[in-house]
Amino acid sequence: MEIQNDSEHYRELCFKCLRPVSSCYCKYTSPINCGIKFVFLMHPKEAKKQRTGTGRLASLCLPESEILVGIDFSKNKRLEQLLSDPQYYPVLLYPAPDAWNCAKEGFKENIQGKKLLVIIIDSTWFCSKKMLRYSTNLHSLPAFSFTGSYKSIFTFKHEPKEYCVSTIESCYYLIKELQTAGIVDKENSPEPLMTTFKQMIVFQLQKENDRIEGKIPSSHATDWKYNRKKEIPEFQTD
Fold this sequence. Notes:
Elements: E1 37-42, H1 44-47, H2 54-61, E2 66-69, H3 77-83, E3 88-93, H4 107-111, E4 115-122, H5 125-134, E5 143-144, H6 167-180, H7 191-212
């Protein structure tokens, strides 16, 4: 659940994470020079999630990443420029039946020394299907997925399936698998992604508990439905 406080609208914002400076997440981030170009195709609704949008959090740790906001990217000039750039090998991170993964023989050779351009649809699963349907320029891209199964630690967000993970977790697990396959250098750890994510989870759960205890005012008409305090996990961060 996303916790908002009207007074935050009047506070000074950090222009990187778009949070109030007093609760900025940037101090938890570190650059991950993994040699992958990540592009987040962000639904407009996702772009408004300044507090719990994990695509924006992921981009803070990925120096070469870009965020493109929209629904139909079929005529997006920047995306077309990236897809046609010969230095990149573009893939769409999506669980298609015929998706490539690091365990499939020939994937490393198929890249042919190019830099991976990983396109990630940053949206709810329902909206992502619509974005993919409209964005016809994504249809010809090879789909890429994970070799393993992962369970999200996003404890206050309900995913449609247990195997669904957040955008920031997707980046983390993808980098880890590519490192295991020898496609990405193991020297640059992706842990800053999870460190930042864990800090966000702890912060949001604490804010929810503070609201329930009456320490901060409610900001949503449906807040009365959520009156049970949440257990705040004690994450081990590297």
